Amino acid sequence: MDHIVDQKLSKTARNIAEQKLNNFFTLPIRIDHLESRLVTATTPNYQTSEGQSHKAPSSPVEKAVLAREELDHALAELSELVYLRKLLEETQPELIRIWDLRFRKGLRNTDAIVIQELGYGNRQSYFNDRDALLGRIADVFGLWDDLRGGKT
């Protein structure tokens, strides 16, 4: 799982990678919400419904299928993030500290705060480690495609 050496992620891919890092902390709550929505969507409803002119799901079955797809996607993303986190805990624990301090939504820490908090003497060392973390996310979620002429 080595990311492309000496390559930078595009701004779009970097934003996606940063969002994935944030998602690690928010996905469990989102999954709980989706599971409860799925239970509600599969409860029988005997009321008749009028025709609709917008693109929202119209039937309980359609709503349940869409909720299941969204739940499956969230579970798969969380599984990948948990796998990566366990791997990094064993091999590169310094990246976990950056992940926790920089990308936990509630903290809203800037790079400068994280550099100070973690005691990086050299700013470039921090940015190299942060880029390595983003590169690992890019590996797992296939965000390097834009460097090979594919799409982000």
Q: Which structural class best describes the helix and strand composition?
A: mainly alpha
Q: What is the strand content?
A: under 5%
The domain count comes to 1
The Cα radius of gyration reads 20 Å
How many strand elements?
0
Average pLDDT metric = 85
Distance between the termini: 19 Å
The low-confidence runs, each spanning 5 or more residues with pLDDT under 50, are: 1-5
Topology:
Elements: H1 11-41, H2 60-91, H3 93-102, H4 111-118, H5 123-141
Keywords:
mainly alpha, elongated
Compact description:
The chain has five helices and no strands. It is mainly alpha-helical. The protein has helices spanning 11-41, 60-91, 93-102, 111-118, 123-141.
Report on this structure:
It is a single chain. The protein has 152 residues and is mainly α. The protein has one domain. It is built from 5 helices and no strands. Helix 1 crosses helix 5 (123-141) and helix 3 (93-102) packs across helix 4. Mean pLDDT is 85; it is low at 1-5. It comes from Exiguobacterium profundum. This is ArpU family transcriptional regulator.
